[in-house]
Amino acid sequence: MEFIAVSEFMSGIAKKQERLLEDLGIFQDWTERYEYVIGLGKKLEPLDDEARNGEHLIKGCQSQVWLDAKAKDGKVYFFADSDSLITKGMIALFINVLNGETPDDILTADMSFIEKTGLKEHLAPTRANALNLMSTQMKQRALGFA
Prior knowledge:
Strand content: 5-15%
Shape: globular
Radius of gyration: 15 Å
Number of helices: 6
Largest sheet: 2 strands, antiparallel
CATH architecture: Alpha-Beta Complex
Strand order of the largest sheet: 1-2
């Protein structure tokens, strides 16, 4: 009888979420976790200047966050920027998980992984709410390509 690893049944998004949680689990201190998240933000591909407008602004965030999405070969690619390093890092978490996935996979993705990071408990309520807004906006952008 052959056993198949559970990870073989996981979607690409679920695998990326699991890797991200493992990476964050390495850090024992919250300061180190936030430095890691900020580092993810610094690695994002630059957002086109023309995308820094009201159409791409995520409304309701404490900081300014711009989100753009493009579809190529049936997959969605996200681009974002923020005027806050931590906020840019937070949207980078979602981009790392959702980038290069199909619209359908993005729309059905369980985004509760963000709760498992433990980051929300250490954020001001307005910043914690921004995580929900980011997730919702990314799904709405994917819906436009579905």
